[in-house]
Design goal:
Layout (H helix, E strand, L loop, with lengths): L3 E8 L3 E9 L5 E10 L6 E4 L2 E4 L1 H20 L4 E6 L1 H5 L3 H12 L3 E3 L2 H13 L7 E6 L4 E7 L2 E8 L3 H9 L7 H16 L11 E4 L1 H13 L11 E2 L1 H13 L19 H14 L5 E3 L4 H13 L9 H12 L7 H17 L7 H12 L12 H11 L7 H11 L4 H7 L9 H19 L8 E10 L2 E8 L4 H18 L2 E8 L5
Parallel strand pairs: 1-6, 6-7, 8-11, 11-13, 15-16
Antiparallel strand pairs: 1-2, 2-3, 4-5, 8-9, 9-10, 12-13, 14-15
Helix pairs in contact: 1-3, 4-10, 5-9, 6-9, 7-9, 8-9, 12-13, 12-17, 13-15, 14-15, 15-17, 17-18
């Protein structure tokens, strides 16, 4: 049930887009509708009395798009409309006339946002949907390119460069082939010089996070080229070599066959090469080899910022993973009965094993275990007989904010664990994703969780606490304190202690202690 519906109209240089979001009582943000209209406003500039203006063709494109969007907004019963315009309108001397004209014809007031606001909204979305504390971001539109550098999730520097994919195409490839070698060389040299001139960027050696349609298209193409086994591109990472591969693909493909490239949108065929070169040159300039895609950008930043400003900061950029896991539990009919007891047992055993030197404590591992315990075999709401398979599929293919793709896969493996053979089956498409040490660690966590589940097999919460004791090098004893009958728990833990023994790398004896007898 949505308590508020917000529409964002984004009047960019390349496209004009409408996105409608539903907001519920927990401030979860659901995308309800997403539609775009081609704009190419950068092609609609002309000079009038020595001033650069958007001509009547461009104005008509804006009006037709907004009028069409207004009908959809009314149908969706939107409560708040945020219409924003960016670089193309900023560059136009007649932008206020256009804003007034659109308001008169549609009753929708367009806000012309500044370069700093545009850069800030983009990085705001990134820092509230990714856990990276420090990074460089790039949002390349049709007429401008916004670059920021943030540390500790705070924007430290920003710049808006007066060129984008459409304007670069016009500047370097006008009356030339889309892959003209001289034009390509000139564009690369131009972008290299532009990025080198930004002092705070030099050799920052930070991840480069890219927003916008061109970045998403490049990632889509690359995923299909390598038969990427996970769904979703938010958090997808590419190396510089991978960016070079996509660039070579685009430049070596006949223009008439560009539409056959899987993952490439038809309306970006003529501008994808300038975007790819820009991403590659910037990545090289900052000495990064981690090009990360964010599906969350300007529009999402506007929404998150609006909610935080309006409702006293409900979306915390330090609690991204917690919000994500909580949202899964709210959206899906998951039975979480006993989940908190399961979490307590699992984390308690993990911490005791760390104290005994079996594991080296790791906070990220700790939280991963908590999340996996909470979502353990959640796919049972689809089918209890194949709950492991459904759990793995759902978690490995959901867009989990705050999780890298590798961490998402780890979570799916641990939360879905049934047995070793099924785990290997789940891993068949992910050869080379984990080292042997990482696989052993995953197996240890799976075993720890599997045993913890057995400690409340009857769902009557009979066990109060646990004490793990090392008797000698290879032998351990687990004291299990209970105050109610534990017939089911005795049977299940005896069957599953082998999972814990694998993690202990030793033998385990179970000692059940009835606390009511000692009173």
């Amino acid at each position: 049930m949505h308590t508020e519906r917000i529409a964002v109209i984004d009047i960019g240089s390349n496209t004009i887009r409408l996105v409608i979001y539903g907001i519920n009582e927990y401030f979860d943000i659901d995308e309800l509708h997403n539609i775009k209209a081609p704009a190419r406003l950068a092609e609609c500039f002309e000079t009038n009395d020595a001033q650069l203006i958007i001509n009547t063709i461009g104005v008509q494109r804006i009006l037709e798009a907004v009028q069409g969007f207004k009908v959809i907004i009314d149908q969706f019963e939107v409560t708040t409309v945020k219409a924003i315009a960016t670089a193309a309108m900023r560059q136009a001397a007649n932008h206020q006339e256009i804003i007034d004209y659109i308001a008169k014809e549609t009753d929708i007031q367009i806000q012309l946002i500044s370069e700093e606001q545009e850069a800030n909204f983009g990085q705001y979305a990134v820092t509230h949907t990714m856990i990276l504390e420090d990074a460089v971001t790039i949002d390349m539109g049709g007429a401008s390119t916004e670059i920021t550098l943030f540390t500790n999730k705070q924007m430290r520097h920003y710049i808006s460069l007066p060129f984008g994919t459409v304007s670069l195409k016009e500047q370097f490839f006008k009356d030339k082939k889309y892959n003209d070698s001289e034009a390509l060389a000139n564009l690369q040299a131009f972008l290299k010089d532009q990025f080198k001139a930004i002092e705070w960027l030099k050799k920052s050696k930070l991840p480069l996070i890219a927003m916008g349609g061109s970045a998403r298209n490049i990632a889509n193409v690359h995923q299909r080229r390598v038969n990427y086994p996970l769904a979703g591109i938010h958090g997808y990472s590419m190396s510089n070599d991978a960016l070079e591969e996509t660039l070579q693909l685009f430049t070596n493909t006949d223009y008439k066959k560009m539409s056959d490239i899987d993952g490439l949108s038809n309306d970006r065929i003529d501008i994808i090469i300038p975007a790819n070169i820009a991403f590659l040159e910037l990545s090289r300039e900052i000495k990064s080899d981690d090009f990360v895609i964010s599906t969350q950008g300007l529009r999402e930043g506007i929404i998150i910022h609006y909610l935080n400003e309006t409702y006293n900061m409900p979306i915390d950029n330090q609690q991204i993973k917690v919000r994500t896991i909580s949202q899964i539990a709210r959206k899906l009919p998951i039975n979480v009965m006993g989940s908190f007891l399961r979490i307590n047992f699992c984390i308690n055993l993990y911490q005791q094993m760390c104290q005994l030197g079996i594991f080296e404590y790791d906070y990220e591992q700790h939280t991963e275990l908590e999340f996996a315990s909470y979502l353990y075999r959640m796919g049972a709401f689809i089918s209890s007989e194949s709950d492991s398979e459904h759990t793995f599929y759902l978690l490995s293919n959901m867009n989990l904010f705050g999780f890298s793709h590798k961490r998402r896969l780890r979570l799916a493996l641990i939360a879905s664990y049934r047995n070793k053979s099924l785990l290997k089956q789940h891993l068949e498409d992910f050869e080379g994703w984990f080292t042997s040490d990482e696989l052993n660690e995953i197996m240890d966590m799976c075993g720890l969780l599997k045993f913890s589940v057995a400690l409340n097999n009857s769902h009557t919460n009979p066990i109060s606490h646990l004490k793990l004791i090392r008797e000698n090098v290879d032998n351990y004893c687990l004291n299990i304190y209970h105050d109610r009958p534990i017939i089911a728990e005795k049977y299940r833990t005896s069957r599953h202690k082998k999972h814990l023994e694998r993690a202990l790398k030793g033998n385990l004896s179970l000692n059940f202690i009835d606390t009511t007898q000692s009173e």
